[in-house]
Specification:
The chain has 227 residues and is of the alpha+beta class. The chain is 36% helix and 22% strand. The radius of gyration is 27 Å and the shape is elongated. InterPro entries: SHOCT, YokE-like_PH.
Length: 227
Amino acid sequence: MPPVYKIKLKMIDKFLSDQQEPKAVEKVYSRLKELLPAGEETLYIATQKKPLVNILPDCIAVTNRRVLFFTPANLGLSIKFLDFTWKDIADVSVKEEIIGAVFSVTTTKGAEMGVDYLPKVQARKLYQFSQQCREEERKRVERQEGHIINIPAEQQPVAHQPAPAPVAPPVAIPAPEPEPVHIPEPVVAAKPDELTEKLKKLKVLFDNGLISQEEYNAKKLDLLSDF
């Protein structure tokens, strides 16, 4: 084994404790090193394990600031991703099935993203880390709001009231002439946003079982990247 590859394995070793796919984790970890700013830490990486062919698995990464969904593209030569910060996530859920589990997140705007065929132990770890991060985000918001509310009165800005203007003697104002009546023009309904309509149609196909979770994720990423 080349020395460089040994170093890479050592760096991602902590993300392979639950039988994750090493090559998939390596790709995701390399991408995360390029994407994440200073102070953002990768907490967990989960990899899809399809029952028959698992050559190009989807992956999920959880950091202390966001959750990222990775989907291979161009026959594995590239990788697309979609991320959601914790302040924008309304809920996380895990649904355990006969084969694996589905991990999904719902945003405050109602968007949903998930990955199926995750090993159950990995889906549970994702849920645990996600709940911890959401709790930390809630405490951070409470501390920020409490700091704003509890600013001492002497430190709060004082609003300066302008001096009252001198009162002018009353002036007789002639009655205004009646204005012509304007008939409002019919309102034309705005056309629905093209991207929103496509996402709604895609969600209907998924809800009716016409496409799989994997196909739904891939098509959704394609639509978002096109816009």
